[in-house]
Design a protein that fits this description.
single chain; 344 residues; alpha+beta; seven-stranded antiparallel β-sheet; five-stranded mixed β-sheet; 2 helices; 26% helix
């Protein structure tokens, strides 16, 4: 009989321990504004916290940021922004750590929690939160803990605490955003500087190649020989504008170069539309040559007392042995303003 009684007593003593383990993952917290509830979480486990009213806002001290990879806890709420639900889901992304969390509901309640990371067997799967009058001391539910605030530190109003925490979180978010923008700007400036350096180097090499090409062509022209052709008519005046040609036209590297100047000595502006080099053999009439004109100013206008200089370049092979070469200064509607005979 003594053995049977002892065996029954042992079974009864084991029964409460088994019941407490089964109830551990599901707990209830009775909270007020001056109490802090503890939520036990574990990596790989999502803990659901259910409230009596829809959840309006959540502030987590160590919230995980997917952009930077920093933070410990992933926090979500059920429902949508227009129709929020009553549940908050918490999941840690690290094997250890701790933080705090504030949840504000549409019922104008603000709840305070301490988040801890424990083993999988100790973690809460579901926590139901209910209200209790401030200052009361309800017994903690199985598997959950609630701690009163320090008596010597009077607690502020929940809404004030929440707004302060919200402002701190927004300030941290702005600081992170500013850091990201500053880093991106520094990278962009570095890339821009590298690109500018490459462009400058390319321009330098291009200038060097151009100088080398000019020198090569000049040396080749010198070896082929430099020729001159005497200009027949070197000066003409029209509307008090003096047009002058160099007395000799240089020919080398299969190009003819004729330098000209224009000086406005009148009291009015002088404008022209084009310079035209034309050939005439007396039979077919005037025929314009293909030319390139390089001028000291792009506008074909001379103000009072202004001068300009230019060079006319053309292929002398376009001109026959008995053809006459004439330079025409033309105005609107190709009207002739002046002419100079280059070669008879």
């Amino acid at each position: 009989m003594r053995f049977v009684a002892a065996f029954i007593f042992a079974l009864l003593s084991l029964a409460p321990a088994h019941h407490a383990f089964a109830q551990g993952p599901v707990a209830s917290l009775a909270l007020s504004s001056d109490r802090i509830g503890e939520i036990k979480t574990a990596q790989g486990i999502t803990t659901m916290i259910r409230f009596a009213d829809p959840v309006q806002e959540i502030i987590c001290g160590d919230l995980y940021d997917a952009g930077t990879g920093k933070g410990t806890f992933v926090v979500q709420r059920s429902g949508t922004s227009e129709h929020p639900g009553n549940e908050v889901f918490v999941k840690p992304v690290a094997p250890r750590g701790a933080s705090n969390m504030f949840v504000k509901t549409e019922g104008k309640h603000t709840y305070s929690f301490d988040l801890t990371i424990v083993t999988t067997a100790q973690a809460h799967r579901m926590v139901n939160v209910t209200d209790v009058a401030p200052g009361s001391s309800p017994a903690p539910a199985p598997g959950a803990e609630s701690r009163p605030a320090e008596p010597d530190k009077p607690s502020n109003k929940p809404s004030t605490d929440f707004e302060r925490l919200k402002a701190e979180a927004e300030q941290q978010a702005r600081q992170k955003a500013n850091e990201i923008i500053r880093s991106a700007q520094q990278q962009a400036d570095r890339k821009t500087a590298e690109a500018d350096a490459k462009i400058a180097e390319a321009e330098k090499l291009s200038t060097q190649r151009a100088d080398q090409e000019i020198e090569r062509r000049f040396m080749q022209a010198m070896m082929l020989g430099l020729r001159e052709s005497k200009v027949s008519n070197t000066r003409v005046t029209t509307k008090r504008v003096i047009i002058t040609l160099d007395p000799r036209m240089l020919i080398f590297d299969e190009k003819a170069y004729l330098r000209y100047t224009m000086q406005n000595t009148g009291d009015k502006d002088f404008a022209f539309t084009a310079l035209s080099v034309e050939i005439n053999d007396g039979a077919e009439g005037a025929k314009p040559l293909t030319t390139v004109v390089n001028q000291s100013k792009p506008e074909n206008v001379l103000a009072q007392g202004e001068s300009l200089t230019g060079v006319i370049i053309f292929d002398p092979r376009q001109v026959g042995t008995k053809q006459k070469i004439t330079l025409y200064v033309r105005g609107e509607d190709s009207a002739e303003l002046a002419r100079l005979t280059i070669q008879q």
